[in-house]
Design brief:
The chain is an all-alpha fold. It has helices at about 10-15, 20-35, 40-70, 75-100, 105-120, 125-165, 190-235, 250-305, 310-340, 340-345, 360-375, 390-415. The longest helix has about 55 residues, at about 250-305. Helix 8 packs antiparallel against helix 9 (about 310-340) and helix 9 runs antiparallel to helix 12 (about 390-415).
Length: about 425
């Protein structure tokens, strides 16, 4: 990574992410709960370590409990689908946390750079308008995804609780089914239910917190490319005019110095994108692999499950996948499109109006280099196999529908036989 993005551990510990941006504030709250976030002092560092250990334990326990339910057997088709969705989601969440923990220092450097270079830089009125539009988009995506996930979590927790009100021990339900045991008797039932509610909520937080921060980073980098395009398109200094008579030699030097700062900005954004790719490519790969399966299995459960509460929960879960996948692919696609748009922006700059001094000639040569570099888009890939864009969104849903049709036909054949 370039020097602009390198942040040592002591700086990370002393740097707090304090911002009035809604999406970043909301995302940081849940990242702190998982324990993978910046810390200002030793007390916060210890609390982050405790939160990380707690998160890993709870998600691993969630996987263990649901896996036991599948291994134990005796479930109907809806129960198998329900447990399968829970296990796959929890395993994917645990994998994302492990990857972020391995790349923790690089991830935190990305967070700090986002705050220092993207949010705290000086912008003119037009650039602030571009940045505000980005913040609004982030707020819509992060708010929607967080809302649908929490509604799903409420369904997971309150559904069994409402059904169990007034029932005897044999008819009581847990969020995660358990074999016959004394745990269904009072007060063990209430204690066990509370522990499982904590499992559900912690696993749910892990489901969306990483995607939230990745979306924010992608959209802000894409916005920085838009700001760079604006600066390149308005490169003309006060000494540059369309009339050759009014041109002065210092105009080329002034424009070249401004252009040089834009090139440095461009190099910094490319370095940031490369670091994003390094940290998140495994997470992106796992997301793409599991999305189609989860959407397919969740859609099938909605059809076959006779439990009304669980069916409504599955509907909201499907809506969560819809928002999550759209947010994920839209932000990645914006990164590709805006990085490619740098080339026409730099070509439309007033380089042709500059006098043919040494600085004017240097600027013309550098414009060619920037255009050539901008033809290679910045993007996130699924571990290098393919770039993520809005086209990925349609492919995932197409694959999910194909899987759904195949599974539905298989289940119908089994019922007939």
């Amino acid at each position: 990574m370039s020097e602009n993005l390198s942040v040592n551990c002591s700086k990370l510990k002393m740097f707090g992410i304090d911002t009035d941006d809604f999406s970043i504030s909301l995302a940081s709250i849940f990242m702190k709960i998982t324990g993978i976030w910046t810390s200002k002092n030793r007390i916060e560092q210890c609390s982050r370590t405790f939160a990380a250990c707690y998160t890993f334990f709870m998600v691993a326990l969630c996987i263990f409990v649901q896996s036991l339910e599948l291994i134990r057997g005796g479930l109907d088709a809806a129960g198998i689908l329900y447990a399968t969705i829970n296990v796959l989601c929890a395993m994917n969440d645990l994998f994302k946390l492990v990857v972020l923990f391995v790349y923790k220092k690089d991830f935190l450097s990305l967070v700090v750079h986002l705050q220092r270079q993207f949010l705290e830089s000086q912008y003119d009125t037009n650039e602030k308008t571009i940045l505000d539009a980005c913040k609004s988009t982030c707020a819509i995506f992060i708010g929607s995804f967080t809302f649908f996930t929490h509604v799903t979590l409420i369904g997971y927790i309150l559904g069994p609780l409402i059904v169990s009100i007034g029932k005897n021990e044999s008819d009581r339900l847990f969020p995660f089914a358990l074999p016959e045991s004394p745990l269904y008797a009072t007060p063990y039932y209430e204690i066990t239910f509370f522990v499982q509610a904590l499992l559900v909520y912690q696993a749910g937080i892990c489901h969306f917190c990483v995607d939230n921060i990745l979306c924010i980073m992608n959209l802000h980098v894409a916005t920085q490319f838009r700001i760079l395009q604006y600066r390149l398109s308005n490169l003309k200094s006060e000494n540059v005019g369309d009339d050759p008579v009014t041109r002065v030699p210092s105009a080329a030097e002034n424009s070249y110095m401004t252009f040089k700062r834009c090139v440095q900005h461009h190099k910094m954004l490319i370095a940031y994108c490369n670091k994003l790719e390094e940290v998140f490519n495994l997470i992106v790969f796992s997301q793409i692999l599991i999305f189609s399966v989860l959407i397919c299995v969740n859609g099938l459960q909605i059809l076959v499950d006779t439990n009304v509460g669980r069916r409504y929960t599955s509907v909201f879960f499907l809506a969560t996948f819809f928002v999550q996948l759209l947010m994920f692919t839209y932000s990645c696609d914006g990164l590709i499109q805006e990085s490619l748009n740098v080339a026409p922006a730099v070509y439309s700059s007033p380089w042709a109006c500059l006098p043919m001094t040494i600085y004017g000639k240097m600027l013309r040569k550098d414009v060619i280099l920037v255009i050539m570099r901008s033809r290679i888009p910045c993007c996130l890939t699924a571990k290098g196999f393919f770039p993520i864009s809005l086209e990925t969104y349609t492919k995932v849903w197409s694959t999910a529908v194909s899987y759904f049709t195949l599974l539905r036909q298989t289940m119908d054949d089994l019922e007939k036989s």
